[in-house]
Design goal:
heterodimer, A: 216 residues, alpha/beta, Rossmann fold, 7-stranded mixed β-sheet, B: 66 residues, mainly beta, Ubiquitin-like (UB roll), 1 helix, 27% strand
């Protein structure tokens, strides 16, 4: 565990204990030992990363090639002051403010079938948080063939203002979970509330997997 | 009986994955295809033929998220 110096005048171990006081019983040690890799740091990835950082997932790997634009701010967890920064750099900065006790690896890179092994192979669980459907398909094809035993949590369909209740998590086979409504595309507009629901589905499934629950 | 996404399908034995997908209206690069639990690479779509009792899973993705 990464241990920062004194925080707000308190010893780090006291801060850590209090920050975890409301975590589910017996979850904190398992969460702290886990490593999750998140492919994409946009609307899905930034929200998922924040959720996992807050509960204390011990190691997060963030991979995204992009920089923050003003048009991202209606749904992605960045600030006006961070526009122009690489998303992974800004996300790491934000996560460290939420939880300084975790280890964050940030890579400003584009994932391809050739680089997936380099960036994602050391994680226990892989989270897909891309935008483009061909990138989602590419990741599933590559992870499913290169790491069939590694759980992969994905999302498809979170655009528009359809009912929150149409977003679900489905398990297609062992080690493959897909959240979303399955149909609504980004052309309808993408807004924070519904993207956050899909991100919450992914983050909760990842949390369940870390804590040994493999059912949806 | 050959099934697609759990539903019995009338697809003829010997049909290639590519021919099966071309009949649908989703861009092929938005799809992942599994046959009997094995992922079929996009580069193999044209040469992989379906057999009797194959269980085909077509996973379709839509955009939005990053």
């Amino acid at each position: 565990m990464h241990t920062p110096p004194v925080i707000q005048g308190q010893a780090p171990d006291q801060v850590y204990t209090q920050m975890k006081a409301r975590n589910v019983t017996a979850s904190t040690a398992k969460l702290s030992a886990a490593h999750v890799a998140i492919a994409g740091a946009g609307g899905l990835g930034s929200n998922i990363a924040i959720a996992l950082a807050r509960i204390g997932v011990g190691t997060l790997t963030l991979v995204d090639f992009d920089v923050i634009e003003l048009s991202n701010l209606n749904r992605q967890q960045y600030k006006l002051s961070q526009v122009g920064m690489p998303k992974v750099t800004a996300l790491k900065q934000n996560l460290q403010e939420f939880n300084p006790f975790i280890t964050i690896h940030a890579y400003q890179e584009k994932l391809t079938p050739a680089t997936i092994s380099k960036y994602l192979s050391s994680a226990d669980i892989i989270c897909e948080a891309f935008d483009a459907p061909q990138e989602k398909a590419m990741l599933l094809e590559a992870v499913g063939t290169q790491f069939p035993a590694k759980p992969l949590v994905m999302a498809t369909g979170m655009a528009g203002i359809h009912s929150a209740n149409t977003i679900t998590t489905k398990q297609l086979r062992p080690n493959l979970y897909i959240a979303g409504d399955g149909t609504s595309t980004g052309a309808k507009g993408l807004m924070a509330p519904r993207v956050m629901i899909a991100a919450g589905h992914e983050a909760n499934m990842i949390t369940r997997l870390i804590l040994g629950k493999t059912t949806i | 009986m050959l099934t697609i996404n759990g539903e019995p399908a009338a697809t003829a034995t010997g049909t290639t994955i590519l021919a099966l997908l071309t009949a649908r209206h989703t861009p092929i690069e938005h799809l992942v295809v599994e046959v009997n639990g094995q992922i079929i690479h996009h580069t193999d779509f044209a040469t992989t033929t379906l057999q009797t009792d194959d269980q085909v899973e077509i996973i379709t993705f839509v955009g939005g998220g990053r």
